[in-house]
Predict the 3D structure of the following.
Amino acid sequence: MMKFHDNYFWWTYTDIIDTLVFAHMLVEKFQCNATLESVQPSSVNNNANEFETHLDQINFVYDYMNLKERGVDLKIDIMDSKLHNKICANKSIDHEGNSVGRLFWPHNINHVKNHKIAIFSGEDNRSKFSDNLDAHGKDKNWKNPMYGNWDIVREDLTRQGYELVEISYKDKISDTIEKVQDCYACVGYFGAINSIALLTNKPLILIYQSPGNDGYTRLCNREIINISSPDEYSLLLHNSKHQWHELIRNSHKMWAKGYHNYQGYKLGTKSV
């Protein structure tokens, strides 16, 4: 039986999902059960939405991943938020350096509808953090060059026959997962959509600011399609009649490659 601790403040869906996925990875790698112990704040997690506490979100992801049946026990102690920030800050598992998700592949894959696409623009993040501006009046947290162009992305997808399912940080995580379940692929800005796509096992097309910030492939062993700027988007998608159909078809090919790699890690022909 392994036992490990992560008392880092799990601020977002990504923090929660990545940490629990890493716990599962260790169980699979070492072929034994494990207990993940953590201290988390008692407050509502306003960094994700206005409804759920940190524990609400952790318990949902834990149950959704069937981690109890997979050999991961969870022990969460609750602490006053201010006290947690004082004594627990930066005490985190190095899950990023250990390739989160390489040994996790969801079991509960539902039937998908080929015409439904989950889209996560991150636009609500921009308004949420708009008071955090730099000296030039620009948002310091969300410098995504695609802001202002998401309507073009939506129009292109809709024109080509896709039904869009809008994903938002403001939704409960359970509602978000339910929305994504029967979608054919995810399109979004780099951030929580990475971990949502990992958890629901969806091919992913990213539109974000830095082509070098490819954490989804590096950490999660999933290939992605990355469109890094509005100019690249225009060049790639406005030169042919069925642009999105081809992109989404390619994203599924990359998803299949990720599954092939996952089997290699499971069989020991690839190293973690």
Residues 90-103, 126-131, 138-143 have pLDDT under 50 and may be disordered.
